[in-house]
Automatic annotation (TrEMBL):
UniProt protein name: Damage-inducible protein CinA
Domain CinA C-terminal: 9-160
Species assigned in the record: Nitrosomonas communis
InterPro entries listed in its UniProt record: CinA-like_C, CinA_C
Domain of life, per lineage: Bacteria
Cited SUPFAM superfamilies: CinA-like
Amino acid sequence: MDDQMLLTYAQQLGKALAERGFMLASAESCTGGWIGQAVTAVTGSSAWYDRGFVTYSNHAKQQMLGVQSATLTQYGAVSEQTAQEMAAGAIKMSDAQLAVAVTGVAGPTGGSEEKPVGMVCFAWASRQGFAHSKTHFFSGNREAVRRQAVGTALQGILKLLKDIPPSLA
């Protein structure tokens, strides 16, 4: 996935959000703000991107997004459960109708047998209660894993938008 593809996804997302009058928030760990960078590369994104939370540490996830310490203890920072709480927190702490959350192991260190390098957990949520989470296993170096994660995050928001009935726009 290259920069042009990320820009294309961000442009499609901006158009779809603007058509609904929706705002987006992002909650990022392993991508370190790259989702925010990708969407703000689109001219006019202030009309549909509310804010981004870069919560690399567990403390930041708890403090900024309300991730429960019990969740982090039981499932770890790299888990769909944590990603779900990050997305819910981004909705709660913003004016956005949609949120995406990403947490993972970008490498080259930090992986384990249970959570290998390239494992990235995603969650997408809407203020209306639509939610979805998924774990992907990407290959490549740190930048490649992060780039694939950003693309997957953007594609997931587009999918979530298609799943929300137009009557809720």
